[in-house]
Amino acid sequence: MSQALRHARYVVTENPVTLAAFALFSGFVLLAVVGPWVAPFDPLLSDTARALQPPTWRHWLGTDQIGRDILSRILVATRLDLVIALAAVAISFGLGSLAGACAGFFGGWTDRIVTRVVDTIMAFPLFVLAMGIVAALGNTLANVVIATAIINLPFYARMARAEAHVRRAAGFVEAARLAGNGPGRVLVMHVFPNCLPPMMVQASLNLGWAILNAAGLSFIGLGVRPPTPEWGIMVAEGAAFIVSGEWWIALFPGLTLMLAVFCFNLLGDGLRDLIDPRGRT
Amino acid sequence: MSEPPLLSVEDLSVEFKTRDGVVRVLESVSFDVRRGETVGIVGESGSGKSVTAFSILGILASAARVTGGRALFAGVDLLTASERERNRYRGRELSMVFQNPRTALNPIRPVGKQIADLLLRHGNVPRASVRDRVLELLARVQIPDPVRRYHAYPFELSGGMCQRVMIALAVAGAPRLLIADEPTTGLDVTTQGEILDLLDGLTAQSRMATVVITHDLALVAERCDRIVVMHAGHVVESARARELFTTPRHPYTARLIAATPRPRAKLGELLPIPGSVPDLRAALPPCRYRSRCDRAQSACDQAPLPTTRVAPDHVVACRFPR
Amino acid sequence: MVLARLAGRRLALAVPALAGVVVVTFLLNRALPGDPAAFFAGPAATQQAIHEIRVKLGLDRTLPEQFLLYVRDLARGDLGKSLTTGQPVIADLLTRLPASLELTLCGLALALAVALPLGVLAAVRPGSWIDHAARVTTTAGVSLPIFFTGLLLVYVFYYLLGWAPAPLGRLDAFSSPPVARTGFYLADSLLARDSALFRAALRQLVLPALTLGLFAMAPIARMTRAAMLGVLGSDFVRTARAMGLAPRTVLLTYALRNALLPVVTLLGMVFSFLLGANVLVEKVFAWPGIGSYALEALIASDYAPVQGFVLMMASIYVVLNLTIDVLYGLIDARVRIEA
């Protein structure tokens, strides 16, 4: 354990960027938890007298078209965006890696069915499929999470399948079997845990993508409905005002979105360095 | 005998920049090659044989730097020549046959076209007759059915055939010097013999000088006029083949010869060389064989390592040659 | 001949993909919220009327039967009718498809034109400013939400600088579309020898194509750079240099062609993103393509166009993947010549 910590410390100090990403990540998580309390204004409170104001001392990031404070809305939206992304990634990670591990481990029909399902998902342009799923199942937040989870499933399923396949062929599975463990036990206790590390790298990279996806869906009107504050829908609301020069309504939520995704990508790269230093570019 | 050597390598030193520091891969390497001669460079893996060849041709990796010495080819120092000048020699006057022929050829280009590329670049061959020239070359290196093989990809050819293609590439420009880096490693024994015979034949036909780089002593014993023995980036001994084998003067050479398996010798009779090639990243004594030498004395730690000429064509880098 | 055989083999692999797409779109079709029959009948309908519509739509049959009916309709090109336009969905989609294709193709062309040289140069000159520029582009490009990039570009180039026209679609208010021969305004205006119209269409294309292009540039440049770096250190490039070949030959014929292989494979994923991003860009720039068609229908709760859109996009994607496989086989003989 201490060796792992030492290695972690080495990677973190070697690469200050990873450290910065981790700090940023912690910042976002903190905001998600305490957002509503630190927001200076009520995110839903509209004050039409102060509508469309650029950044001022009172409203640091300006106000939108019905006078709501943009900073407060962004802070409160952190929770929603992170929860959506985390939920979607957690579901696809859990289901995908389990399905993939079973497919790679048992082979045969399990493998064929899982592969067929995964290939079918990947036959669609993924965002389009998400649109289709939300349109079909109904325009709710839960369905946005489900749709994002489904389109992310293939990455985990394929990875887990490959890893399980490799480990199935490796000697230690045989050894566990010989020690009297049934196949299910071998899968859960030996194969599955070993598949996890590379997939955790994938998961943190996926978080960034899941946020972009959810934001994209809400940008086109799926999932989140006004007046709920969410980064994507705030950009959509601000879009109409860009052509008339009120840039702050769309810019700040967009920048926050970008920062969050950037942070998750860097974190993913850093995790990858931690787990497999050979893979550095 | 009185003409100057075709290739004269003098005091060549090369270092590599690595994550762990600077590695002095070659230090003061010197040897000559005369016109029409076959010179063998032997040594263990890691002794710097291939790096020497790459330095002469100017195709070292970017992390490598030549830190001293000259490589005079027909009077021109290839190490200080411009890249453009060097490119005029490569493939034409001076060429190379690489190890692992299958990976050394472009995997997605038919082999005939690869030879054609070279001919078009160097040969002053009119476009219309390039294909015929390629077929001629393929026949010359004894590739059966050259017409069909023109369009073949490297993955469709056996290791031996790929090596023949490499040789065809190397002799296409009618070079005066051919460097063959481990030309037979990885090939089965019969093919090895065929490839070496082919090289011999080509050498004889055109008075082409050849440098054969290998770890196989038996190979150089049979086919080379002179032999250069390398260890850990140094040339430890160089002499005419017969003289090297009858009277090796450097302890390493003697050990190498003794370690070569002989038919009917038992496994237990094999004499390995003790120790291993020293870590070139660390600080090294002037004689890099010192740690493995059974005749080392305290005087051996004195710099510089002297080079003694024990006979007209026999040089040893040892303070106390036998 | 080789091409035909290669295409044929890949086509056989595309069939199960298409089958999967059809099944999924059918399931999405049937997963609609509420009772479609009641929906189509309208709020004032009687139970009898609803029942009649249910029979007409085939909703009283079993699920497998409904699937067969669905496939039969698809084979006839019947994707249903749009409630908002009143037209058959297939007609609407085909009318609006060229707009989307023109945009996507221009975006892709732009991305390739910038990313490929950028990646190559970054690999050839590691550590130089161009290498750093490439790395910044790729890292930023991957993180930026595409709708945000589009808006930023509109703000900077239209509002601030006034260089770009208003994001109002394919043509400005004063121009009328050329005679539709290909549906691509650029091509059609050239065919009609109307250079003023060509310029007008081009001006409108710049920002949306740039938005899509920036998005696709990042992964392509990253992969090109990585692949080139790998190939430049390979044995066969070393042989090519030892053979004294011209530096340009070594770079292009020997190095780049090999490096393009993983880039071509990557294009599959890039297309997936591009086709999805198309929808977002069409919304930002009011582009009258199939993406905005689906969005308008979605807002109006008109589902047939949305499903038709998903089906069409997926089919285009399958065809694109097929093309990529064939292209790969053309470059790399190892894939073509299977023992």
Quote the average pLDDT of chain B.
Answer: 87
Structural class of chain B: alpha/beta
General shape of chain B: globular
Question: What's the number of helices of chain C?
Answer: 14
CATH class value of chain B: Alpha Beta
Instruction: Give the strand content of chain B.
Output: 15-25%
What descriptive keywords fit this protein?
heterotrimer, A: 281 residues, mainly alpha, B: alpha/beta, Rossmann fold, 8-stranded mixed β-sheet, 4-stranded antiparallel β-sheet, 11 helices
Summarize the structure.
The complex is a heterotrimer of chains A (281), B (322) and C (339). Chain B has 322 residues and is an alpha/beta fold.
Model description:
The complex is a heterotrimer of chains A (281), B (322) and C (339). With 281 residues, chain A is mainly α. Chain A has helices at residues 2-14, 16-38, 70-106, 108-122, 126-137, 141-169, 171-178, 183-219, 231-242, 248-275. Chain A starts with a helix and ends in a 6-residue tail after the last helix. Chain B is an alpha/beta fold and 322 residues long. Chain B has a single domain, classed as P-loop containing nucleotide triphosphate hydrolases (Rossmann fold). Helix content of chain B is 31%, strand content 24%. In chain B, strand 7, helix 8 and strand 8 form a beta-alpha-beta unit. In chain B, helix 4 (111-122) packs across helix 5 and helix 7 runs parallel beside helix 8 (189-206). The longest helix of chain B is centred in the middle third of the chain and has 18 residues, at 189-206. The model of chain B has no long low-confidence stretch (mean pLDDT 87). By secondary structure, chain C is mainly alpha-helical. In chain C, 76% of the residues lie in helices and 0% in strands. Chain C has 14 helices and no strands. Chain C has helices at residues 2-30, 36-41, 47-57, 63-75, 89-124, 129-143, 146-160, 185-191, 195-232, 235-242, 247-284, 290-299, 303-331, 333-336. In chain C, helix 5 packs antiparallel against helix 11 and helix 10 crosses helix 11. The longest helix of chain C has 38 residues, at 195-232.
